Amino acid sequence: MANSRSAKKRILINDKKSKRNASARSDLRTSLKKARLALVENSENKSALVTTASSKLDKAVSKGLLHKNTANRRKSRLAKALNSAG
Question: What is the pLDDT averaged over residues 17-44?
């Protein structure tokens, strides 16, 4: 357990940030899953879902959740799957 005031405060702040990051990561994963599912099922709104997932990937990079190369790789794979799906 932390002894100083500043250490106790850091514990509280880190807990708050980790909960926020977990929520954002979950939202990102959900949007990616919906986009991939739409591509597999060849649904009508697949383009919109891929665009939304790409946007969320960019936001995750700006928030520091993902490295930019990771996000670009995932966006590239989504775009490639969208183009091959027709």
Answer: 96
The answer to whether the predicted template modeling score (pTM) of the entire model surpasses 0.90 is: no
The better pLDDT of the pair 86, 21 is held by 21
Q: Which phi and psi angles does 42 have, rounded to 5°?
A: 55, 45
CA-nearest of 13, 54, 5, 10 to 31 is 54
Fold of 5-85: Methane Monooxygenase Hydroxylase; Chain G, domain 1 (1.20.58)
Q: Is the pLDDT of residue 77 over 80?
A: yes
Domain ranges across the chain:
5-85
Q: 58: closest CA among 79, 46, 72?
A: 72
